[in-house]
């Protein structure tokens, strides 16, 4: 199945889309200048203990103190605290852990006050971004992720991803991991390492060790808490690291600098894939060209049509931590042997769409699904197994419970970031029950085009709502053709699915906005 990565650089954020066969499968957003991202490693300071929660609050420089539970300390927390204290004081002058004297692992049933104290420096990693009124969530079990390996300082074992296909391959990878693993570090071998040689894994391990030696050690030594020790890759590069495979046929970005950075990163991790990166330079916005804006409006509403179902749809309702999804049937019984077969068919299509919606919206917490009722126990089992299959590629931790006696399926899904909520509605353009006539809007556009023609000698581009664009361009005697005859300038009209009805922009050939209007 062919995949495309589409990256749009906007003024305040980068938006990243993964397409499969032209359909949106994942949507990611990264705020430019965001200093607190999942994966960031930070030297924090314990602010206060919360024995009743068996946790503590840590100052990492965010407006709200971050939360660190005892179970997220990691068994080797005492060794980590000892190492960081020694590096900061100058007693430890080497990033290597070969000769470091490790402390005993902590008891998993212990209490926070036996390990940490207020005002103590601690090396932590963000595992959840701030959600609602809560600050970030932390772990002090540090990991440095590569494409094939994850390096874990202060650990001492090698693990292999459970998604590796065969037991023989797991054994081979584990054997390689044990051979190359340096003393004082643990390794996790990722699924994409399947089939890779020992030399390829060794090369990435060297890069991860250099990152620890040259970045983490140096910053631990010179930084005063709270301070960032190592930032996670930018979102686009981290998606490439975690998702890149043979299915990807193109990587397109509308920012030349960011496209260059992604190409440079691919030259490091997969040189043969760097040719997939293309810089998109057009007056038609990249999300408009790939039909993404239209899909977003269709996918993020309360009602979502089920792909290839001929009319079935989902209704998705949200609360703070509970999400309810109702499956509604359409006219799809014609090709089915019975009503029961039709219900199973719709439910399977709905299960695939639900799995996509959970990834797209980054829905976490408890999800309750009301599928169409099935009477056959075998059909219920088939649906449950199919739902687990389509959820298999979801990287967020999740658990799916079998259908209850009421026919409801419950899913718990990890919350790592705030849920995406995109507004798919538009304000009513009516003012006091009235709306400007089309000719008034056209006059307004025409006046601004006249002004633009006076001061701009190059090409002009009018971005407007698709309905207005059609009104301006339809027919031989279209309004746009009249402009050409009157002003001897051809105005390129670009429909924008993301625009409101009365919104329009005029841009020059350098993509600079000369005039914009939004009611």
TrEMBL record:
One cellular component term from this protein's GO annotations in UniProt: cytoplasm
Statement: the UniProt record of this protein carries the keyword RNA-binding: yes
Xref: Pfam families: RNase_E_G (PF10150)
Superkingdom assignment: Bacteria
All copies of domain S1 motif, residue ranges: 37-141
GO terms for MF: hydrolase activity; metal ion binding; RNA binding; RNA nuclease activity
InterPro entries associated with the record: NA-bd_OB-fold, RNA-bd_AU-1/RNase_E/G, RNase_E/G, S1_domain
Keywords for this protein: Hydrolase, Magnesium, Metal-binding, RNA-binding
Signal peptide residue numbers: none
GO biological process, one term: rRNA processing
The keyword Hydrolase belongs to this UniProt entry's keyword annotation: yes
Cofactor(s) required, per the database record: Mg(2+)
Name used for this protein in its record: Ribonuclease G
Organism whose genome encodes this protein: Apibacter mensalis
């Amino acid at each position: 199945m062919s995949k495309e990565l589409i990256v749009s650089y906007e003024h305040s954020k980068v938006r990243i889309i993964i397409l499969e066969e032209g359909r949106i499968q994942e949507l990611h957003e990264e705020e430019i200048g965001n200093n607190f991202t999942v994966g960031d490693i930070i030297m924090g300071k314990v602010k206060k203990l919360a024995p009743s929660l068996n946790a503590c609050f840590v100052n990492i420089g965010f407006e709200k103190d971050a939360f660190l539970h005892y179970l997220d300390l990691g068994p080797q927390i005492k060794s980590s605290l000892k190492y960081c204290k020694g590096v900061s004081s100058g007693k430890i002058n080497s990033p290597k852990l070969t000769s470091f004297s490790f402390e005993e692992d902590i008891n998993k049933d212990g209490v926070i006050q036996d390990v940490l104290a207020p005002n103590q420096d601690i090396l932590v990693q963000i595992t959840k971004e701030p959600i609602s009124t809560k600050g970030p969530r932390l772990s002090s079990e540090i990991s440095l992720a590569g494409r094939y390996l994850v390096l874990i300082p202060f650990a001492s074992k090698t693990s292999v991803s459970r998604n590796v296909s065969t037991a023989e391959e797991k054994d081979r990878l584990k054997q390689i991991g044990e051979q190359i693993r340096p003393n004082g570090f643990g390794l996790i071998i990722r699924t994409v390492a399947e089939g890779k040689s020992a030399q390829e894994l060794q090369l990435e391990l060297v890069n991860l060790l250099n990152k620890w030696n040259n970045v983490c050690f140096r910053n631990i030594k010179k930084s005063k808490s709270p301070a960032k020790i190592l930032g996670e890759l930018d979102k686009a590069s981290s998606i490439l690291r975690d998702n890149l495979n043979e299915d990807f046929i193109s990587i397109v970005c509308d920012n030349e600098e960011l496209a260059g950075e992604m190409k440079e990163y691919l030259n490091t991790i997969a040189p043969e894939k760097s040719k997939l990166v293309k810089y998109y330079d057009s007056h038609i916005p990249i999300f408009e060209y790939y039909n993404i804006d239209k899909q977003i409006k269709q996918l993020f509403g309360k009602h979502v049509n089920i792909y290839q179902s001929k009319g079935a749809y989902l209704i998705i309702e949200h609360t703070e931590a509970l999400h309810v999804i109702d499956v509604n049937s359409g006219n799809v019984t014609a090709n089915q042997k019975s009503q029961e077969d039709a219900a199973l068919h719709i439910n399977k299509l709905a299960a695939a769409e639900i799995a996509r919606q959970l990834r797209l919206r980054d829905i976490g917490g408890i999800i309750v699904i009301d599928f169409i009722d099935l009477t056959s126990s075998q059909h219920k089992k088939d649906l449950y197994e199919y739902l687990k299959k389509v959820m298999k590629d979801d990287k967020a931790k999740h658990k799916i419970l079998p259908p209850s006696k009421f026919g409801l399926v419950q899913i718990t899904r990890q919350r790592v970031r705030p849920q995406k909520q995109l507004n798919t509605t538009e304000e009513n353009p009516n003012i006091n029950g009235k709306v400007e006539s089309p000719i008034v809007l056209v006059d307004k556009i025409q006046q601004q085009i006249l002004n633009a023609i006076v001061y701009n000698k190059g090409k002009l581009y009018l971005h407007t709502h698709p309905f207005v664009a059609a009104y301006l361009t339809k027919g031989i005697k279209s309004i746009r053709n009249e402009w050409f005859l009157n002003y001897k300038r051809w105005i390129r009209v670009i429909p924008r699915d993301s625009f409101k009805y009365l919104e329009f922009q005029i841009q020059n050939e350098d993509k600079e906005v000369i005039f914009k209007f939004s009611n």
